[in-house]
Design brief:
Blueprint (H helix, E strand, L loop, with lengths): L1 H8 L7 E6 L8 E2 L2 E2 L2 H4 L4 E6 L1 H12 L12 E3 L4 E3 L9 E3 L6 H8 L8 H17 L4 E4 L4 H11 L8 H9 L6 H14 L7 H11 L6 H5 L6 H25 L11 H13 L5 H16 L8 H15 L12 E2 L1 H5 L7 H11 L25 E3 L14 E3 L12 H6 L11 H20 L3 E2 L22
Parallel strand pairs: 1-8, 9-12
Antiparallel strand pairs: 1-4, 2-3, 5-6, 5-7, 10-11
Helix pairs in contact: 8-11, 9-11, 9-12, 11-12, 12-14
């Protein structure tokens, strides 16, 4: 701030202000440094929004029109009439320090200069005070105006000139587009995230919350649907966010209780969370039968990699189906089609992809208390998405050893070895008999055990083929996508 004022005093350029002339009613500040803006101009549209230059204008308004009296305040800026520098005063009422908030009003300026009248440096002080006044009052700042664009068209301009270079998200745009005195999207989203954390689920993203708010407002969950939130009235938005806050709390409680999911990253697909929130928003009471259907759907969409190739059209169809299910119009959330688990089993294990995330969740679902060689497993290891807590049960360098099907929970640096306890092996989806003619036979047997479990929870016939990854010929990794927003 002191450097900015010094540049103005010396006539240096401080850059232009960027104004956006728009008819849209967007989130905006109604005051600058405590100074209220003209209400009449605020209600007159089109109006000019300040896109770039807020800190510069705030500094000038704060320093020149500050009405406070306390010594220690970042707006209490003085001009040293001796050194011609802008400073923060260490002591009050020093004659050679001219307070900037006494500069603009003529009467204040004259009264301040009268203090120099009998000072031996009075002539110098008065001359420098007048020089300061002229420098401030005569300084001209360039203003660049852009026409009536949409907020989406303006966003790239703001990003380009923003010194932080942070790309604006759809959440940022909708915060601006929906803001009013009665509604603050940023605050509402934070309350929703807080409700998830209160129920034990951390890491829920604001973009995912925004998608649920759009659905609760009667819209869809695609980007185009979300952008229509700007047309929704504040009262309806408040009602939608309140319902989402309650539904997110219920969803978080369900995930922690039934799947031991305590962090959002443990879910294979973000879209699963969106649909769960919509179910719990519409259906106020979920009994055991509904929970069983929901769990089956979660594992069905995970093992089949259902949301990997989702698009806007499919998203709309899925949302309609989820709503019908929640309203009791459809008893089944998913079709009992046959499941090919080959990709789920055979993808290379990497917790950056959805199949490995799902496989690790499957392993944790049995809450094993010990490793296969009898060492204890801290329950916290089961809650964290960390590759170091998973090891391959085989080490022959083949593609099989690097695939999901070969992974077990083993939070120790040494390689796991099979112990004698059949009960422990069951907790890790491992065959009771540790001796097999080949690695292939061993993992085929394990795949059958897991396939049986998946079939039990989904009600679907499950098949797989491990031969797809002989050698190093992995299936293509199923990388997590951003679900279109």
């Amino acid at each position: 701030m002191l450097n900015l004022l010094d540049s103005i005093y010396k006539g240096y350029p401080i850059g232009s202000l960027l104004m956006w002339n728009s008819s849209q009613r967007l989130t905006s500040e109604r005051s600058i440094s405590g100074l209220e803006l003209n209400d009449r101009e605020l209600t007159s549209y089109p109006t000019n929004y300040l896109l770039d230059g807020q800190q510069r204008l705030t500094t000038l308004c704060g320093a020149l029109f500050w009405h406070g009296k306390e010594l220690v305040n970042h707006w209490n800026i003085h001009f040293n009439l001796e050194s011609e520098e802008f400073v923060y005063p260490d002591e009050p009422d020093l004659v050679h320090l001219f307070p900037l908030n006494k500069l603009i009003e003529t009467s204040d300026f004259i009264k301040q200069c009268m203090k120099f009248e009998h000072h031996d440096r009075g002539v110098v002080y008065t001359r420098n005070a007048e020089k300061l006044l002229r420098a401030i009052k005569d300084y001209k700042i360039a203003v660049v105006k852009i026409g009536d664009m949409t907020v989406e068209e303006v966003a790239p301009i703001f990003e380009r000139i923003n010194s932080t270079g942070r790309k604006l998200t759809i959440v940022d745009l909708m915060m601006a587009a929906t803001w009013s005195d009665d509604f603050d999207l940023n605050q509402e989203i934070q309350l929703i995230i807080d409700s998830a954390e209160a129920a034990g689920l951390a890491g829920v993203k604001d973009q995912i919350v925004l998608r649920s708010i759009s659905a609760a407002a009667g819209l869809g969950i695609n980007k185009d649907d979300i952008q229509r939130l700007r047309k929704i009235k504040p009262a309806q938005l408040k009602e939608a966010t309140a319902s989402v806050r309650e539904a997110v709390g219920k969803t978080a409680a369900f995930l922690t209780r039934r799947l031991s999911v305590f962090d959002f990253s443990r879910l294979p697909y973000a879209m699963q969370f969106t649909h769960l929130v919509e179910i719990f928003r519409i259906q106020q009471s979920v009994d055991r039968d509904l929970e069983r259907e929901i769990l089956g759907w979660l594992w069905f969409t995970t093992v089949t990699r259902y949301f990997t190739s989702s698009n806007s059209g499919q998203n709309s169809k899925d949302l309609a189906k989820v709503r019908d299910f929640a309203r009791g119009l459809n008893g089944n959330l998913y079709a009992r089609d046959a499941i090919d688990a080959t990709g789920f089993f055979c993808d290379k294990f990497n917790l950056r992809n959805s199949t490995s995330t799902g496989f690790s969740l499957l392993l944790a679902s049995r809450q094993p208390e010990m490793t296969v060689d009898g060492r204890s497993i801290d329950p916290m290891y089961l809650r964290v998405k960390e590759s170091k807590y998973y090891s391959s049960i085989i080490d022959d360098g083949s593609g099989l050893s690097k695939s999901n099907i070969a992974r077990i929970i083993h939070p120790y640096p040494d390689r796991p070895c099979l112990g004698d306890g059949a009960e422990i092996r069951q907790q890790h989806f491992l065959p009771e008999t540790p001796e097999y003619a080949s690695v292939y036979d061993f993992l085929t047997e394990r795949g059958g055990i897991i396939a049986g479990y998946i079939s039990q929870v989904t009600g679907c016939e499950v098949s797989f083929t491990l031969g797809a990854i002989d050698g190093l010929g992995y299936l293509e990794d199923d990388w997590i996508v951003d679900d279109g927003i």
